[in-house]
Known about the structure:
Elements: H1 2-14, E1 20-23, H2 27-38, H3 42-48, E2 54-57, H4 63-67, E3 74-77, H5 81-89, E4 93-96, H6 103-113, E5 116-118, H7 126-131, H8 143-155, H9 157-172, H10 175-188, H11 205-208, H12 211-241
Helix pairs in contact: 1-8
Amino acid sequence: MSSLIGGIAAFLIETPDSSVLLALRNVNYELYQRVLNEIDNDQTRDLFNSPGRVKIEPGFVPQKWILQQHSVKIFLSHCGMGSIIEALYYEKSILCMPFNMDQFANAVAIDRRGVGLSLFIPNLSRWESLITPYDYRHYTFTSNDVQEKLLKLWLNITYQQEVKQMHLEMKHAGGVKRAVEEIEFFVQLNGSFDRFIPFQDTLPFYQRYLLDIFVVFVVLPGISILFIIVKCCQRRRKQKTE
């Protein structure tokens, strides 16, 4: 929390025309108050006590309504799928701060897609992440990380362009109307999508993974070559002994 507050404060100082709304509930709100009281920097404390620059909301906030406002430019999110969809639909770039489960994968996807940045950087090898997939929750970031990534999202128009493209793709997908049409189509098919199963899923296991071709063109020739080599070596040894 201290890194988050410090980074946001540094960002607000560098961008005088910006302001922040933080929705912090229960334990997060208590932690925020405790950290703010322990900060020695008077400028940071005064900034967070300034209603014109920082607003702290300890209760429920109408997230969807807020994201619709044109004055909102960046969305700091835990990266739940619902929040991501709302943010992108209303053309907001995302700064990811995931907490658990699928939020980590969502944060990585957002960063790679160019519609936002992530404070979470994977710190486990592929093998470690397979064994203990939830150890990502112990990741850390600095106030400098927060400041730099907020400034990038604020100043770099590339992110806004990518978000705009994603927004258009989502609108073109059809929304609720398209979802209803797909459900009705499914009902008319009596709940069966068998005819739409991809061809590769209808193949036996050995054909799907080309094991039959591997055996014919790799294993059998390999065995034949190995057999010939062994026979040649045995023949040479026999000739030497004679």
